[in-house]
């Protein structure tokens, strides 16, 4: 069975020789894409394993640190970005704050909101973790080439409903996904 799932710009060509786009993807092609995304996520997680053990941080704590690298977030927005409940987010923040890796401050525009930002120590740990994942991703990007990088970014940003993608989550039954935090 084939599924008409992607606009022409994202379709795979019917064969390398044909070079022409096709509108339909087979279920096995879609299943392969899902499997590759899961495996890539696992590899990025594994790239940080030694550092996470060294710093004694969980994967969720590591993701939180990396998400905060570059700019602060309101607590509830950070929870949404990480896909955590408010309670799980607060537990994670408490653990990181007890290590002096982050601080919470009152939002100057809304006293009810708390803004989370990294301390210098937290930024140093987050940078180490991000560098491990960047190295892994950069190596794959070098092998794949610039066109593949652009295509990968376009597909993934479309999948998560990022403003850089062209898909609208409003047109589907899928809830909007968080925008990735690009780290320079």
Q: Describe it for me?
A:
With 184 residues, the protein is mainly alpha-helical. Helices cover 54% and strands 9% of the residues. The chain is built from seven helices and five strands. The protein has a three-stranded antiparallel β-sheet. A hairpin with a 7-residue loop joins strand 4 and strand 5. Helix 1 packs across helix 6 and helix 4 crosses helix 5. The protein is globular. It starts with a strand and ends in a 24-residue tail after the last helix. The relative contact order is 0.11. About 15% of the residues have low confidence.
Question: Main attributes?
Answer:
about 180 residues; 3-stranded antiparallel sheet; 7 helices; about 55% helix; 5 strands; mainly alpha
List the helices and strands and how they pair.
Layout: E1 2-3, E2 25-26, H1 27-47, H2 49-55, H3 59-68, E3 73-74, H4 75-82, H5 86-98, E4 102-106, E5 114-118, H6 120-144, H7 146-160
Antiparallel strand pairs: 1-2, 3-5, 4-5
Q: Can you describe this structure in just a few lines?
A:
The chain has helices at 27-47, 49-55, 59-68, 75-82, 86-98, 120-144, 146-160, and strands at residues 2-3, 25-26, 73-74, 102-106, 114-118. With 184 residues, it is mostly helical. It starts with a strand and ends in a 24-residue tail after the last helix.
